[in-house]
């Protein structure tokens, strides 16, 4: 059973461009979480999604950031008009439909904004 | 959301047992306690999860007292490769993702 997959692993964008980060959850997992980690800091929750639904987006910046988890295909975290402060590691986690909060993380996408 | 408190750092030597304690005084009835390990430039890796008493798997044990206001992750006979950041999270299905990982505990294992 393949783990959580994220691509690209590294992404370089210039200020003002768009960044699209993809996350394919583990097989059978219907819940996806996105986190951001700045250097030397812990992970910060951004958004929690189920198929075709955003369950909790309280950690998402109000502007430029959006996320989706369509019925088919990976979850996408989209950052429009990137700024240097968006440079960070973005991790995706997935969990199965159960009552416990276990999350399984992907390797992350490292975004660098020039 | 229950706030968690862990030591910022710990040092140990190869072959020793390491115990990392996490305080979570405001834990709710439905909350589980989950520990993750993170190496530099990698995503966190699930280590162990428990609700009460003691849980043991092939890599660690988790001790949870009756009042559940704290928990202790126990790593038996650590090796250099156990050097990592360890995070304690408290939450249930609906709020676990909201838990910030905080700064975690940086464990350094020395030869």
Structural topology:
The complex is a heterodimer of chains A (114) and B (111).
Chain A: E1 5-7, E2 10-13, E3 19-24, E4 31-37, E5 43-50, E6 53-56, E7 65-68, E8 75-79, E9 88-95, E10 104-105, E11 109-113
Parallel strand pairs in A: 2-11
Antiparallel strand pairs in A: 1-3, 3-8, 4-5, 4-9, 5-6, 7-8, 9-10, 9-11
Chain B: E1 9-13, E2 18-23, E3 32-38, E4 45-50, E5 53-56, E6 61-64, E7 70-75, E8 84-91, E9 105-110
Quick summary:
The complex is a heterodimer of chains A (114) and B (111). Chain A is mostly beta strands. In chain A, 0% of the residues lie in helices and 49% in strands.
Describe this structure as you would to a colleague.
- Chain A is mainly β.
- Helices cover 0% and strands 49% of the residues of chain A.
- In chain A, a hairpin with a 2-residue loop joins strand 5 and strand 6.
- Chain A starts with a strand and ends with a strand.
- Chain B is mainly β.
- Helix content of chain B is 0%, strand content 47%.
- A five-stranded mixed beta sheet of chain B has the order 1-9-8-3-4, with no helix packed on it.
- In chain B, strand 6 and strand 7 form a beta hairpin.
- The termini of chain B are far apart.
- Chains A and B meet through strand 5, strand 9 and strand 10 of A and strand 3, strand 4 and strand 8 of B.
């Amino acid at each position: 059973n393949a783990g959580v997959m994220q691509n690209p692993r590294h992404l370089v964008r210039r200020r003002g461009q768009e960044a699209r980060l993809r996350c394919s959850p583990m097989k059978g997992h219907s819940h996806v979480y996105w986190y951001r980690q700045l250097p030397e800091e812990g992970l910060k929750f951004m958004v929690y999604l189920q198929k075709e639904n955003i369950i909790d987006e309280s950690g998402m910046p109000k502007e430029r950031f959006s996320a989706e988890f369509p019925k088919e295909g990976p979850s996408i975290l989209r950052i429009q008009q990137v700024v240097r402060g968006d440079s960070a590691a973005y991790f995706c986690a997935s969990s199965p439909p159960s009552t416990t909060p276990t999350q399984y993380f992907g390797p992350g996408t490292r975004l660098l904004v020039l | 959301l229950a706030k968690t408190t862990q030591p910022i750092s710990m040092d140990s030597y190869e072959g020793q047992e390491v115990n990392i304690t996490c305080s979570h005084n405001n834990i709710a009835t439905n909350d589980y306690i989950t520990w993750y390990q993170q190496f530099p430039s990698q995503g966190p890796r699930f280590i162990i999860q428990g609700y009460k008493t003691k849980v043991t798997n092939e890599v660690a044990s988790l001790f949870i007292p009756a009042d559940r206001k704290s928990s202790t992750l126990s790593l038996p006979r650590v090796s250099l490769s156990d050097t990592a950041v360890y995070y304690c999270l408290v939450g249930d299905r609906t709020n676990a993702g909201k838990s910030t990982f905080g700064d975690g505990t940086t464990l350094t294992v020395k030869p």
